[in-house]
Amino acid sequence: MKNGLKDWARRIKRDAHAVYLAASDPRTPWYAKALALLVAGYALSPIDLIPDFIPVLGYLDDAIIVPLGIVAVVKLIPPEVMAEHRAAALAAERPVSRTAAVVIAGIWGASVALVAWLGYRYFIG
Q1: Does the N terminus or the C terminus of the chain have fewer Cβ atoms within 10 A?
Q2: CA-CA distance, 23 to 82, in Å (whole number)?
Q3: pLDDT at 96 over 80
Q4: What is the DSSP letter of 52?
Protein backbone atom coordinates (compact mmCIF):
# COMPACT_ATOMS: atom_id res chain seq x y z
CA MET A 1 0.00 0.00 0.00
CA LYS A 2 2.86 2.35 0.81
CA ASN A 3 4.32 1.94 -2.69
CA GLY A 4 0.88 2.55 -4.17
CA LEU A 5 0.62 5.89 -2.35
CA LYS A 6 4.12 6.87 -3.46
CA ASP A 7 3.26 6.06 -7.08
CA TRP A 8 0.01 8.04 -6.80
CA ALA A 9 1.90 11.04 -5.36
CA ARG A 10 4.47 10.84 -8.19
CA ARG A 11 1.67 10.75 -10.79
CA ILE A 12 0.02 13.80 -9.20
CA LYS A 13 3.32 15.73 -9.27
CA ARG A 14 3.93 14.69 -12.89
CA ASP A 15 0.37 15.63 -13.88
CA ALA A 16 0.69 19.02 -12.14
CA HIS A 17 3.70 19.74 -14.33
CA ALA A 18 1.98 18.30 -17.42
CA VAL A 19 -1.09 20.48 -16.77
CA TYR A 20 1.20 23.49 -16.48
CA LEU A 21 2.74 22.62 -19.86
CA ALA A 22 -0.64 21.90 -21.47
CA ALA A 23 -1.91 25.35 -20.43
CA SER A 24 0.34 26.91 -23.07
CA ASP A 25 -0.65 24.45 -25.82
CA PRO A 26 -2.93 25.96 -28.51
CA ARG A 27 -4.87 22.68 -28.73
CA THR A 28 -6.04 23.09 -25.14
CA PRO A 29 -9.46 24.80 -24.81
CA TRP A 30 -9.46 28.24 -23.16
CA TYR A 31 -11.52 27.13 -20.14
CA ALA A 32 -9.11 24.24 -19.52
CA LYS A 33 -6.18 26.68 -19.79
CA ALA A 34 -7.72 29.01 -17.20
CA LEU A 35 -8.36 26.22 -14.71
CA ALA A 36 -4.98 24.62 -15.50
CA LEU A 37 -3.12 27.82 -14.69
CA LEU A 38 -4.96 28.18 -11.38
CA VAL A 39 -4.46 24.57 -10.32
CA ALA A 40 -0.86 24.27 -11.53
CA GLY A 41 0.06 27.65 -10.04
CA TYR A 42 -1.27 26.57 -6.66
CA ALA A 43 0.20 23.05 -6.88
CA LEU A 44 3.65 24.35 -7.88
CA SER A 45 3.67 27.26 -5.45
CA PRO A 46 6.30 26.97 -2.71
CA ILE A 47 3.77 28.49 -0.27
CA ASP A 48 0.51 26.77 0.69
CA LEU A 49 -2.74 28.63 1.31
CA ILE A 50 -3.13 26.49 4.44
CA PRO A 51 0.37 26.03 5.96
CA ASP A 52 1.40 22.43 6.62
CA PHE A 53 2.13 23.09 10.32
CA ILE A 54 -1.62 23.50 11.00
CA PRO A 55 -2.79 20.05 12.19
CA VAL A 56 -4.98 18.11 9.71
CA LEU A 57 -5.99 21.18 7.66
CA GLY A 58 -2.38 21.84 6.63
CA TYR A 59 -2.21 18.68 4.57
CA LEU A 60 -5.84 18.83 3.41
CA ASP A 61 -4.98 20.96 0.37
CA ASP A 62 -2.06 18.71 -0.57
CA ALA A 63 -4.06 15.50 -0.15
CA ILE A 64 -7.49 16.48 -1.50
CA ILE A 65 -7.77 19.91 -3.13
CA VAL A 66 -4.75 19.74 -5.46
CA PRO A 67 -5.43 16.18 -6.73
CA LEU A 68 -9.12 16.95 -7.35
CA GLY A 69 -8.17 20.10 -9.26
CA ILE A 70 -5.65 18.21 -11.36
CA VAL A 71 -8.16 15.44 -12.13
CA ALA A 72 -10.73 18.06 -13.22
CA VAL A 73 -8.24 19.79 -15.51
CA VAL A 74 -6.99 16.51 -17.00
CA LYS A 75 -10.58 15.63 -17.96
CA LEU A 76 -10.90 18.97 -19.81
CA ILE A 77 -7.70 18.59 -21.83
CA PRO A 78 -7.79 16.40 -24.97
CA PRO A 79 -6.18 12.98 -24.20
CA GLU A 80 -3.55 13.20 -26.97
CA VAL A 81 -2.43 16.63 -25.72
CA MET A 82 -2.25 15.38 -22.13
CA ALA A 83 -0.25 12.28 -23.16
CA GLU A 84 2.26 14.44 -25.01
CA HIS A 85 2.74 16.79 -22.04
CA ARG A 86 2.95 13.92 -19.53
CA ALA A 87 5.93 12.59 -21.51
CA ALA A 88 7.48 16.07 -21.57
CA ALA A 89 6.90 16.45 -17.81
CA LEU A 90 8.82 13.25 -17.12
CA ALA A 91 11.81 14.56 -19.06
CA ALA A 92 11.83 18.12 -17.66
CA GLU A 93 12.61 19.62 -14.28
CA ARG A 94 9.60 20.61 -12.14
CA PRO A 95 8.98 24.39 -12.23
CA VAL A 96 8.16 26.58 -9.23
CA SER A 97 5.46 29.24 -9.50
CA ARG A 98 6.80 32.38 -7.86
CA THR A 99 3.75 34.38 -8.96
CA ALA A 100 1.44 32.03 -7.08
CA ALA A 101 3.72 32.31 -4.04
CA VAL A 102 3.43 36.11 -4.14
CA VAL A 103 -0.37 35.93 -4.45
CA ILE A 104 -0.67 33.50 -1.53
CA ALA A 105 1.72 35.59 0.58
CA GLY A 106 -0.45 38.63 -0.25
CA ILE A 107 -3.58 36.80 0.90
CA TRP A 108 -1.87 35.89 4.18
CA GLY A 109 -0.62 39.47 4.63
CA ALA A 110 -4.08 40.92 3.98
CA SER A 111 -5.60 38.42 6.42
CA VAL A 112 -3.12 39.33 9.16
CA ALA A 113 -3.73 43.04 8.54
CA LEU A 114 -7.51 42.55 8.72
CA VAL A 115 -7.29 40.57 11.96
CA ALA A 116 -4.98 43.22 13.46
CA TRP A 117 -7.32 46.01 12.42
CA LEU A 118 -10.40 44.21 13.79
CA GLY A 119 -8.54 43.41 17.02
CA TYR A 120 -7.52 47.03 17.38
CA ARG A 121 -11.08 48.27 16.84
CA TYR A 122 -12.57 45.68 19.19
CA PHE A 123 -10.10 45.94 22.08
CA ILE A 124 -8.83 49.52 21.85
CA GLY A 125 -11.26 51.54 19.73
Answers
A1: N
A2: 10
A3: no
A4: T
